[in-house]
Amino acid sequence: MTVELHTLSNGFRIVTEQMPGLKSTALGIWVMAGGRHERADQNGIAHFLEHMAFKGTRRRSALQIAEEIEDVGGYINAYTSREMTAYFARILQDDVTLAMDVISDIVLNPVFDRTEIEVERGVILQEIGQVLDTPDDVVFDWLQEVAYPEQALGRTILGPTERVSNFNRADLSGFVAEHYGPEKMILSVAGAFDPAKVLADAERLYGHLPRGRGDLIEPARFRGGERREIKPLEQVHFALAFETPNYRDDEIYTAQVYSSALGGGMSSRLFQEIREKRGLCYTIFAQTGAYADTGLTTIYAGTSADQIGALAGITMDEMKRAADDMSDAEVARARAQMKAGMLMGLESPSSRAERLARLVSIWGRVPALDEVVARIDAVTTEKVRAFAAGIASGGQAAMTIYGPVSDAPHLEQLQERLAA
Fold it and tell me: Is 251 a known active-site residue?
């Protein structure tokens, strides 16, 4: 399997990887414009725009967009994140040109019909309501806000209802004009396809676009703090975050190995000590995510009101203990989980296409798998212990806690226990 990267004269990039033996292809456009690129008065518009892309173009109605892909047995979808918006499809290899045409049409030619805007506004408001009614979703939105207050990176992707209720056609068109230049777009294709035809189609569909203007994102400033929301739920939802490296920092691999060993699976410390030995919860995990200039290692658990104190305290103890006695076996297991997860994911053309786009957006190239594996293997037990010690030293943290939390410990108490 060979990765090829091409750049058109206007800065539009195409990254492809053929996967022998497949009969299908995953392809899409990844646009480096997401929630983080919004001004405060635009919060939620990147996600609104993603929805509107499927509501009709100058050549296709909303129904025709769906029918043209589904008539050939394909699948089309999109998502918005804080740093990207993606529009993608999975089709059989004979339908690659069709899928490329449909994707380009919805990205470049949406009509933003006023009637459809009102229909989709209702859909998005329902989506916001659903998240607000899902405690283990909303607690992470609140955690992001506490970690990065009064910053684009801290605002929700869906946006607040008052903003979404007022977006209009001009707002949507303005965001496209501001952020959807060809130099911010990546076409990623993985699976079975004709490389020469993909390049020719890309030139035809995107080569005419004029370069946009560059934009600067607001630098992330991790602040931390605590948000407590009291509500008579069945469980307390507890989320804790620490700032960790950005995705261009080699230390990100240490952070990911640490979070995997701490709470990444059934054999992890938090799962074994808190769930298996003590039965204090059903769900508990740790994970590390990253952005262009910052990252978060996050711990989440759901438990009862009378057990949140014990759960939170033991979590601090396990984090502190990791700095002293994280074992070679635990680190080796975490490295193996990371490598296996990455390699297993690459068996799917959809996962591979997304990986290609993300790597090009980060590095401007696609590092070889051997290079990534070597970076994971370079994470030693000593590095993980040192990383754990840095977190346990009592630096800034963010915490959100939701439910019957009147008697739950405060962040300051947990930080004192962690640093003791």
Answer: no
